[in-house]
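Methods — Computational structure assignment.
A single polypeptide chain was analysed. Its primary sequence is given first, followed by the predicted tertiary structure written as structure tokens.
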Amino acid sequence: MTEIELSTEEKILKAAEEVFMRDGYDGSRMQDIADVAGINKALLHYYFRSKDKLFEKVFDAKIQSFFPKMGEKFSQDIPFLDKIHIFIEGYMDLLLKNPYLPLFVLNTVNNKDKSEFIKKLPIELSRQVAQSYYVEFKKGNVRELNPAQFIMSLMGMCIFPFLAKPILLDMFKADNDTFDKLMEERIQELKHYVTLIVTP
């Protein structure tokens, strides 16, 4: 689809993703999004009343593009550890491309009516992880552990650096490019840690 064929709403969403990725959620302004979309701010507000509403729409698209794919991976007949490695690769890639997502999720869940928003989060995927674990545990292929604790640790190890990015940049005297390189290296580190935790 070419730019001319895009509807006004599609242009807005495309521009919003570009601005959110460039400036992060807090640094993004509705005027910037309107400028990139090539429309006036009044028209932008006609389609999306607030930055939060616009971001939720962009976020929904990201969730729908990632977690269903992961769900398909966990339904495949492959070793549990391979599934976890695939999850780490996919999740870290998602965060590297959209580093503002974790903070937005936390802010949304903590500050708004969260009942509808939580339904969009990977709750079903968490159940699939637990089910896959128990299948492998019965076969003796993984050590005994609490799947809930494992899932929390796995998600935390992936998400924490992105939530603490300003602190880590200062701590390591690093820039954004260095941070991204660290996160790319972290994929292999996490796969190594998980292998040690899961392997009997």
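Note: The CA atoms of residues 15 and 163 lie 24 Å apart.
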